Amino acid sequence: MIFMNSGHGPPRTMALVLSTGLYPETQPWRTHAMEAPHGHVLHVEESGDPAGLCAVVLHGGPGSGSSPLLRRFFDPARYRVISIDQRGAGLSRPRGATAHNRTEDLLADLRLVRERLEVPRWLVVGGSWGATLALAHAAFEPQAVAALLLRAVFLPSAEYIEDFFQDTAGCAPAAWARFASVVPTDQRHDMLGYLAAGLQEPPADSDAVLPRRLALAWWQWERTLAGGEPVSNTDVQPDRQTLDALVDRYRVQSHYLLHRCWLDSPPLLERLDALPQVPTLLLHSRDDRICRPEGALAVHERITHGQLRWVDGAGHDPSHPAMASTMVAALDSYALHGHFGDSPVP
User: Fold this and answer.
1) Strands (DSSP E) along 285-324, which ranges?
2) DSSP state of 172
């Protein structure tokens, strides 16, 4: 099925999947194993149209790795999509590594990827931690950013981080009690510190029972907050390979959160004064229980040229039909008109 577009940009060659609001799955046409400093090797994928508008996709976590889902927001006939697994995440190597893995390293990696792929400027699309990294990148290299699309931005402040680990808003007390049960009572005042220590790679002559137990509890707690439905210890049991990947993921994430993602000196909000005056759209759900909507409001107050649109009912789920269709519409608008549309939701 071909959709004509009245002369604005190339014709669409793939139909939207109406049940999800997303474009069909596509495969990368090129992958890279890019060597970065200090022994890190970055997994980078290119998909879509090699001659299309260039967009880089920044995944969340930190430590989660890219997902094929993130490519499906883009019309593959209009965009050249670059997906990067950040240090220690996904298919980048060594997986789960925290040495030489700070935000400043990720910013240097973005420059490295952009220069090696000969991209002067790109649209930067990020969700959750990926949106935070996108803001830091835009402040660090404003000349490299053509536009910003930020879903569920995360503010790495002590207050917001504590909210997640202590459930101070009382979002899901029973689920939090299950999460907290893996932490000794006398350590629950510093759950993040205990989890970070327990998720470190165990010695070769020991087993990984504790790290796997902690990672499973963290994952179940996160799923509960993201989807709004309680997840018990018996509802979902990942296989051993998946569980080991979760250990690596949360090792990286706890490493970042312990240090507030190295974005507190100066604070991220103060860095936003350096952002370029380019099309900027923040999307957030007011019922997001992982990245508080107050964070989106605080960022929007500092980006006077940007828009904030509420996509309620989506929680923290990028694949929720309301969020997916809003992301697709915004990216289609940018491909056609050079902006994300002008109808923010009150």
Assistant:
1) 307-310
2) -
**Burial class, 296, CB count within 10 angstroms (exposed 0-12 / middle 13-18 / buried 19+):** buried
Domain edges within the chain: 30-156+263-337, 158-261
Is the separation of the CB atoms in 254 and 96 below 8 Å? Answer: no
Q: Give per-residue pLDDT as tens, 143-190.
A: 999 999 999 999 999 999 998 998 766 788 899 999 999 999 999 999
User: CA nearest 135: which of 328, 119, 126, 144?
Assistant: 126
Euclidean distance between the first and final Cα of the chain, in Å?
Answer: 36
Dist. CA 193–CA 161, nearest whole Å? 12
> Domain 30-156+263-337, what fold?
Rossmann fold (3.40.50)
Other CB atoms within 10 A of residue 45 CB? 21
Residue 203 has pLDDT above 60, yes or no: no
- By DSSP bridging, strand 79-84 and strand 41-48 are antiparallel
CA distance 22 to 146: 23
Q: What phi, psi does 324 have (nearest 5°)? A: -60, -45
Tokens in use for 273?
């004064």
Alpha-carbon gap, residue 221 to 199, rounded angstroms? 16
Residues counted in the chain:
346
Q: How many CB atoms lie within 10 A of CB 34?
A: 16
Q: Cα separation of 76 and 92, whole Å?
A: 24
CA distances from 183 to 103, 162, 235 (A): 28, 15, 20
**Confidence (pLDDT) at 43:** 99
Q: What is the dihedral of CA 127, 133, 134, 135, to 10 degrees?
A: 110
